[in-house]
Fold this sequence. Notes:
Elements: H1 14-22, E1 36-37, E2 43-47, H2 53-72, H3 82-86, E3 92-98, E4 112-117, H4 119-128, E5 132-133, E6 137-138, E7 141-149, E8 152-155, H5 161-173, E9 177-178, H6 184-189, H7 192-197, H8 200-207, E10 214-221, E11 226-233, E12 239-244, H9 248-264, E13 267-268, E14 275-282, H10 287-299, E15 303-311, E16 315-322, H11 326-336, E17 339-345, E18 351-355
Parallel strand pairs: 7-9, 7-10, 14-18
Antiparallel strand pairs: 1-6, 2-4, 3-4, 5-13, 7-8, 10-11, 11-12, 14-16, 15-16, 17-18
Helix pairs in contact: 5-9
Amino acid sequence: MHNPERYPDPLQPWWQRLVGAALAALLLVAPPLYAYPLDGLYEATVPASGEDEAARRKDFRTALAQVMVRVSADPAVIQTAESLLDEAATLVYRYEYRDQPPPGVERTVARWLRVKFHQQPLLEAMGRAGIATWGSERPLTLLWPATDIDGKREFVSQPHPLLTELLQHTRQLGLPAVLPLLDLEDHTHIEASDVWLGFSRALWTASMRYKPDAILTLCLESQSDETRWTLYLKDAAPQEWRTAGVARVDQGLSQLATTLADRFGRSLRVEDQESAVPIRVTRIRDFNHYLDVIDYLESLELTSRVTVRHVHTRGVVFYVHTYLGANAVRSAIALGERLQPLAGLGEDGTPWYQAR
C-alpha cells in the first residue's frame, strides 16, 4: 500500500535535499543481519481431537498454549495464564484441518488442526495478564554438544537422539538454533576438548562461518549424569549452569531462553495506546538509503507504523509507533545491527544511530 509518510517534507530546504544526491556515489551495501526472523510465531499445528465445536475449542486452547510459550520464550507461562487460555477461541484468526503433521513431528493421529492467532489482540491480552513477550527478530544460537566417555572427549554428531531432542525443544521455545556440520573445516579449527575446557577463542573462530549471535556448549558428563551448559555472547562474560536427569535438556534450554529473551528484547506490553518512540538516525546517504531505513524500522515486529518527525542537517528523527516501550524498540534495533548507536545523547536524552 502506498504510504505518503515515506517521502520527506516538500518544504525542506533545497540544499538539504541535495545532500543525499551529492553522496549517492558513497552508497555502500549494508552488512547482512545476523538476527534470525522467526516465521510462524503466532501459529501452531496440534493433533485434532475431533471436528465438532467442543473438540475444536479444546484444540484451540492447546494451540494457544504452544504459541504463548514461543511468544514469551517461557515454558512456565501456561501455569499462570489459565484465564487467557480460556479465551483462545476469541483470539483465533483462522484455522484449517489437514492430514499431515508439521515438519519434524511424528504422525500420531489421522487429522491435525492448524491454528493462527491474531497477533495484536494476543499481545495485548498477554500484556494485561502481566506476561512479557518477545518479537520475531531473535538471536541465532549455535549449539556445540560434546561428551566425555572414559576420559575421551568427542563431539555429539548425527544421528543421535540428543540432537533431535535439542532441536525439538528449541523449536518449542521459539529459539532459532543450528548445529555445526562437524566437517573438515570445523575440525580444522576446533576439537571437542576446546568445547570441554571453554576455549572461547577457538569457539568463536570455528563458529564464524555460521554467523551466530550466541554460542551454547553442552558438555555431557557421563560419570555424574550432569550436563554443563555455557553460553557465549560477543560482549559479555560466559554464563554457566548445570542440569541433570531426564529433564536436563528441557531445563537447560529453558534457562537459555530466559537469558536470551531478557537480553535481546522481551518486554512487558502494558500500554493500551500506541506510543511514538523517537529514533534519531544520522549518515543517511541518499533518498534510497532513507527509504531503506524506513523499510527496516517498519519490518520490526513491534512496529505499528513509522512516521518522520523532523529532517535536518545532522539526520532524520523517525517515530516508531508501538504498543511496547522505548526499551523494546531499542533492544530490537540492537539485535538487528542495522543501526549502530553513537556515543552521547540527543537534546531530549535519546540516542543517535548511524545508518548502515
